[in-house]
# Entry
Amino acid sequence: MSYPPPRPPSGYPGPGGYGGPGGQRGRGAPPPRRGRAVRIDPVLVELGAGLVWLAVGTLGLAADGAGTLVLAVGIAIAIGIGVENRRRGPRPFDTSRSTELLRLGGGVVVAVIIASILLGLLSASAFLPGLALVLTGGAFVLLSRATGQRPTRWLGIALVVAGLLSVLISTGTAGGFVSQGLLGVLAGVLLLVSAADRVGLVEMLRDRAR
# Structure
């Protein structure tokens, strides 16, 4: 048994077009406008998140002046990865995955803000960097379920583990301050390495080393 052809939705042309028989609009009517699809490049997302975490680490390493140097090196590396990504041709997510990414990113920002307020009231702000990293890693794990990308899942798991370790060792103000610097640098490096791997730079360096 053959099924009849699907009926065009309201506002779209029928078999005869906009002006022909079966059309949904009168002659000369313009086609409906469509909004521009949002497509996000995951490389740029990881570069941005990596620089944010390097900046967080800079606050923890600023006592000896090493933070500024670490951040400057990280920015230079991120620019190099971004240029190489543009040269090779970016591969952004499709619209549905980009929407999922925006939703997860917004959820992490809101959760970190709420956690910072609650931990401040409890005089436990030293736990905030580790908790923020757990939330960031959890977002990457959830994103991997929507994209089916195993490297994204392993990146998220690594960030969650690092965040949990930081929460466990952050038992005092001084310890939390030192932990923030090391944690920020570690998270930033992991994110930059992941972005470089997406572009293909890690594989290229591995082949050269052989």
Notes: Residues 1-26 have pLDDT under 50 and may be disordered.
